Amino acid sequence: MKEYIKAAKGEIQADILIKNCKYADVFSKKFVDGSVAVFKDKIIGIGEQYQAKKTIDAKGGYLCPGFIDSHLHIESSMVSPCEYAKLIMPKGITTIIADPHEIANVCGEAGIEFMTESGKLSPLDIHFMIPSCVPAASFENSGAVLTSADVKRLIEKTGSIGLGEMMNYPGVLSCDEEVIKKLSCADFADGHAPLLSSKGLNAYIMGNISTDHECSSGKEMLEKLSKGMYIQLREGTCSKNLSDLLPFVNERNYDRCMFCSDDRYLGDILREGTIDHCVKKAVENGLEPIFAVMMASTNPARCYHLKGIGAIAPGYFADIIIIDNFEDMNIKTVIKNGKIEAENGKPLFKAEINADVSQTVKNSVKRIELDINSFKDSFSKGDIVDAIKIIPHSLITKKVKAEIGEDTSKVCVIERHNAKNNIGIGYVVNYNIKNGAVASTIGHDSHNIIVIGDNDADMLKAVEALGKNGGISIVKNSELIEYLELEIGGLMSDKSYSEVLESHDRLHKAALGLGINSELDPFMSLAFLPLPVIPEIRITDNGLFDVVKFEFIN
């Protein structure tokens, strides 16, 4: 402490001086011309002239506190946590709140351990929430189960700041004993309550649940804000609601609003960004830059009680980003804990995956043997069936009646964790695949195999191509044309993000060659079809599920 005080007085030379900048004064809610001095890992001076070992000329740019992603699943990027850090730190994100429930549903505690250990290999601050819903619903066949006793022990063991998103809102409302015990393990829990309102919402909040990232309308957002929740405006790959919700953010409620990416694959991250993309988009749509910056940093720091970040002021950690302007949103320099970690879009740190740790989360596919008859059902062309209608840019689906034919695609979910003879079969509208099949081991949140196609033979071949490690495969006219292996739990690759992106781009091009609806992400829209906690209708290895009625469809 003495050194910091002396450095603030100018008696000890600062390490970094950033001059010729407009820094974000989040307490006065404005940008101020001046300079910022850093000593070791903290900011020690604002607006005063200091002597420093290194001077950075911001050239009139903006200084902002490091951005915070308030809710995401690293697994959706398809790269490991240390590779993920290389993706996002050059974009100005210095802290993330991550829920590892994807890999926990496959590998249990071993998956959580892999994520936490890999996360330590980079300068990115990763605060892992302990998953509350493994599996997402009690009837799900996942690769692991985390009981309330497991959750309590893991929170204590890891020092986690809270409980991951409570997706089992019916369990909360019915006072399910295990759900209540899990909620009692932490003072803070993230929420997941699409379309919940009125007394149901009141009851849900009573479970120590503080946030929600599932608002799909301004009306829903405003009710949840008025009842004390923090609202996360989400820009994922599949689910984008920032533009719909932003008109309802104003000077009276912005301090309870944050940005999150939730599920965003690495191509979107590299080409557009995550929270930096949200800030740019918000400003483009008329939000004052200082409010956008606070939603990207100050508000999540306050929400998650992250002491010492979210502001540029004496005593705060030197998590600082330099932006040229809010129109182009180029992140010029990223400083984390007083050290320059990225410049001009490139990471300056090295972080490599631990091969020994990753072995515990490989070879995760353990399914039954299949043949062409495994995909047959009792329906024929022309029959009218309950079907899933996919809605572009939304996770919400519609339950419709559809005629089996050219406009429907067959979808199957196959249990892959314990070789159970479980195969759910259904039909999808608006996916439009022709002359082939797509199979994947990414099927939220239990991550059983999901395959979609227009003929059983190609569907079988696509599933068989997944092997024991899993990944994503594409078959066209009986030929395997692309395969991305995801060795880590069937969810993430152990390769570099550049290698994964190159392979994924080939996958995407091949998928579009099958006529798949160009308004959809062909893989992420497929991956969310098995998630039985988002309305209206889903498909699991047990069959079609009506989420509104919370029961299987006969």
Brief summary of the model shown:
The chain contains 18 helices and 28 strands. Strand 12, helix 10 (242-245) and strand 13 (257-260) form a beta-alpha-beta unit. The N and C termini lie far apart (67 Å).
* Tally of contiguous helical segments: 18
CATH superfamily of the largest domain, called what?
Metal-dependent hydrolases
**Low-confidence stretches at least 5 residues in length (pLDDT < 50)?**
none
How many β-strand runs?
Answer: 28
Radius of gyration, whole Å: 24 Å
Give me the oligomer status.
Answer: single chain
Distance between the termini: 67 Å
Mean pLDDT across all amino acids? 95
SS-derived structural category: alpha/beta
Q: What is CATH's topology name of the largest domain?
A: TIM Barrel
CATH class of the largest domain: Alpha Beta
Could you describe the largest sheet, including whether it forms a barrel?
9 strands, mixed
- Domain count, please report it: 2
CATH architecture of the largest domain: Alpha-Beta Barrel
Report strand %.
25-35%
Apparent shape: globular
- Please bin the fraction of helical residues: 25-40%
